[in-house]
Amino acid sequence: EAGVVQSPRYKIIEKKQPVAFWCNPISGHNTLYWYLQNLGQGPELLIRYENEEAVDDSQLPKDRFSAERLKGVDSTLKIQPAELGDSAVYLCASSLGRWGTSGYNEQFFGPGTRLTVL
Amino acid sequence: QQPVQSPQAVILREGEDAVINCSSSKALYSVHWYRQKHGEAPVFLMILLKGGEQKGHDKISASFNEKKQQSSLYLTASQLSYSGTYFCGTEVAGGTSYGKLTFGQGTILTVHP
């Protein structure tokens, strides 16, 4: 079974440039998450989708970050313009969400995109 | 609010045991445990639900004390492959928080031969 796929794995850009990350979740997983992980820290939720709907984007810096999940499958996270402080690993995860069984909602993570802003 | 993990770091020799703790100030619906190796994705280990149900790895065990809102991960007879950073993720009970995990700061586990 294929896991969560993310691309690119690494990205180096100069500040003020735009950047986009792509995520393909595990087949059948209706819920998709984007997390930001700084070095030595746990993942921090940016946005959560249930199918096409963003059900929690309270921690997404909307002045420069945007996300979409067309057709309820793949998702793209964009930063425009990027700032030095955006350097981090961006993780995508998916789960069955409320469509799973027995209340379990384990999340499966992709390998992440390591962003470096110069 | 972020759960608090302890200890921050543990160093073991192969075969030794370790316990990692995770505490929350909020009433929880579930606690999730993950292990992350350097440069890799967090890997799911265990999920514990309010009420006592759990699902996870055969060789790793955990507990969830609902009264104290604390969870502990037990690593017995550690192997070199257990090395990595362990994160707990907590899911607060109630409504719109379903599916939203808040992760602790991590516990670095190093196992030496």
Task: Please name the defining characteristics of this protein.
A: 118 residues, four-stranded antiparallel sheet, 11 strands, 47% strand, B: 113 residues, mainly beta, seven-stranded mixed sheet, 0% helix
Question: Would you kindly provide a written description of the structure presented here, covering whatever features stand out?
Answer:
The complex is a heterodimer of chains A (118) and B (113). Chain A is mainly β. Helices cover 0% and strands 47% of the residues of chain A. Chain A has strands spanning 5-7, 10-13, 19-24, 31-37, 44-50, 53-56, 65-68, 75-79, 88-95, 108-109, 113-117. In chain A, a hairpin with a 6-residue loop joins strand 7 and strand 8. Chain A is globular. By secondary structure, chain B is an all-beta fold. Chain B has no helices and eleven strands. In chain B, strands 2, 4, 5, 6, 9, 10 and 11 form a seven-stranded mixed sheet that branches. Chain B has a four-stranded antiparallel sheet with strand order 1-3-8-7, with no helix packed on it. In chain B, strand 4 and strand 5 form a beta hairpin. The A-B interface holds A 4, 31, 40-45, 48, 50, 55-56, 91, 95, 97-98, 102-112 and B 2, 30, 32, 34, 40-44, 47, 49, 53, 55, 87, 89, 91, 96, 98-106.
